[in-house]
Amino acid sequence: MAEIRLEGAEVRIEDADGASRTILSPTTLTLTEQRIGVIGGNGSGKSTLARLVNGLVEPTAGRVSVDGLDVVRHGAAVRRKVGFCFTDPAAQLVMPTCVEDVELSLRRTVKDRVRRRQLALETLARFGLAERADVSVHALSGGQRQLLALAGVLATEPEVLVCDEPTTLLDLRNTRMIGDLLLSLPQQLVLVSHDLDLVRRCDRVLVVEDGAVRFDGPAEEAVADYVASVDPADPATSTTPGRTSPA
Ligand SMILES: Nc1ncnc2c1ncn2[C@@H]1O[C@H](COP(=O)(O)OP(=O)(O)OP(=O)(O)O)[C@@H](O)[C@H]1O
């Protein structure tokens, strides 16, 4: 697995009135597990944390690296290593047909057009979308669109896949289908999700609150910590005290 390191990584933004606001407090973490979940309330900073991992968001202080590659100084190399999948597949599906969309993902790595088409078709087949190759992306169901977006990212064979709420827009059947797929991948996965059942299947889970990691540990304990932070009386709350492990 890759070594994802945040060293005092902080993200500040400037509000419309010019005031500086911290949306991620200085965070130090080393992530080497295969499946890393990130949970927390709306606006807590989960997406910001996830986006730091492939340089979509740059730290305003501190450093973020993947296998020693600084996400700011070596952004292109990091993005070859780290694929990113958005909540809404519309954010990344831009070509008229499914096969063209996967081809677009491969444009930098596979220069030969015939080989590129062949690889795109093979990728679609792997994701059960072979029949849809020449179909408009708008004709796909929500689950198929999310599958296609994932296929496009995975076609480039990233070592790490960061998914920001990949099942939020999906119904139960598609949530399970995409969830099972993500958790069966050989890639390292950073999964931001509100789906606690999915996150329970991760090896390590970070709970984010108010722009800081409030808990970092095994999935069950992390979920219990998160539930307790929302509703201390919830029976799902474990008696295990929360902990953070910054390194
Ligand atoms: N580019 C930006 N400009 C202004 N504010 C931002 C920007 N990006 C994030 N924020 C703010 O930072 C905070 C954290 O946002 P972030 O998207 O990381 O939260 P989140 O935990 O992923 O939320 P959600 O679960 O709702 O997706 C929020 O208050 C958000 O409004």
From TrEMBL:
Keywords: ATP-binding, Nucleotide-binding, Transport
Top-rank taxon: Bacteria
A GO MF label: ATP binding
Signal peptide: none
Cytoplasm is among the record's keywords: no
Residue span, ABC transporter domain: 4-235
InterPro entries, per the entry: AAA+_ATPase, ABC_transporter-like_ATP-bd, ABC_transporter-like_CS, ABC_transpr_CbiO/EcfA_su, ECF_ABC_transporter_ATP-bd, P-loop_NTPase
PROSITE patterns referenced in this protein's UniProt entry, alphabetically: ABC_TRANSPORTER_1, ABC_TRANSPORTER_2
Cell inner membrane among keywords: no
Similarity comment: family membership: Belongs to the ABC transporter superfamily.
Name of this protein: Energy-coupling factor ABC transporter ATP-binding protein
Taxonomic path: Bacteria, Bacillati, Actinomycetota, Actinomycetes, Propionibacteriales
